Amino acid sequence: MFPNDLFENILHNALTIENLDQITNFCSLSPDITNATFDIFNIFHINIRSLRANFDELISFLKCYINHFQIIILSEIWISECEINLYSIDGFKEFNCCRDSNRSGGVLIYVKENYNFENNLIWPMISAEGIILINNNLNLCLVALYRSHSYTTDFFNQELSNFLPNLPFHDCLFIGDININILDSNSSCEDYLNILSENGFFSMLNLPTRVTHISETCIDHIFAKNISKREIKTARIIYDLTDHYPILCNVLVPKISTFVGNNTTSLRINYKLLKSKFSDLKIPNTSENVNVYYNDIQWIRWIKIPFWRL
After folding, report:
1. pLDDT score at 2
2. How far apart are CA 114 and CA 135, in angstroms?
């Protein structure tokens, strides 16, 4: 069983954005973080529930924020692969996993053209569909997924447990509409959370993402592996584009200098930053808190800052 107190500790405190003007601030670097060291990488996801029906409204929504998003993920696109070129976005390249056999399902990812994701793989499971993108420069693996109700949750969990150990050893984000309410406490949900936890993934969003007059469920998920809670922010956006709220995730990534000297690079330790980060850490006093502590100290690997030696 997933320990309840550990579960409460590692569930990330996601934000709720009710005023769309807040999106710009959310997608920007915090004032206490120097932009000479880090870049911000913003990922937007929504269950679009038919790209044909909602593409124009999506573009209208995005027009004010498109420069802030490096990746846009759409699930339940409901189109065939031959239609993808009808739904391009300027400045972005597309990766898709369409379900041509019937109307529902499908995943589409837009990635800004200046980001090079070297590997793109189709999710190798029959109980869900999705895409795996890898950027070696950012040491980042992105899994974008949609799970329909065509297969049982238990069958999906079994496939997930067989696949996750084979993911590349990168910092990893697992994002999508999984149709499992992680606010529930049934055995299938607990199995799902256990499988992710056993493979190093922790929930970064624990707020309802689909709200009706009879229920509030968190079925659109953001899980992170090897990414400290200090390096990631998540939010849901209260906006009725479809029957799912959009969700946002931003991650700090190290900024690599583009200045070319004699092509020799080195690393130096920022001792001031290192000391301040250690002073914030709380040594775990129970075995259940060890994983939380481990997640916190992942920040330390970023204290070494690349620079060019002249």
Report:
1. 37
2. 12
Using CB atoms within 10 Å of the CB of residue 170, give its burial: 0 to 12 exposed, 13 to 18 middle, 19+ buried: middle
CA nearest to 1, candidates 155, 190, 186: 190
Name the residue among 205, 266, 241, 191 with its Cα closest to residue 58.
Answer: 241
Nearest to 298 by CA among 174, 196, 172, 176: 172
- When mean pLDDT is compared over 77-86, 249-258, 288-297, the highest value belongs to 77-86
Cα-only R_g, the chain: 20
What is the pLDDT averaged over residues 152-164? 96
Residue 80 has φ and ψ, to the nearest 5°, of -95, 165
Residue 187 vs residues 7, 36, 94, 128, 174: alpha-carbon distances, Å: 15, 46, 37, 20, 21
What is the C-alpha separation between 47 and 240, in angstroms, rounded?
11
Tell me the pLDDT band of 273, cut-offs 50, 70 and 90: low
Q: For residue 169, which of 193, 140, 196, 144 has the smallest C-alpha distance?
A: 140
Pairing type for strands 247-254 and 232-237 reads antiparallel
- Domains contained in the chain, CATH given: 4-254 (3.60.10.10), 265-308 (no CATH)
Q: Closest by alpha carbon to 42, among 246, 270, 261, 282?
A: 246
Tokens of 274: 């290192």
**Which 8-state DSSP code applies to residue 192?**
H
Instruction: Identify the band that residue 38 occupies on the pLDDT scale cut at 50, 70 and 90.
Output: confident
- Is the distance from CB of 223 to CB of 203 less than 8 angstroms? yes
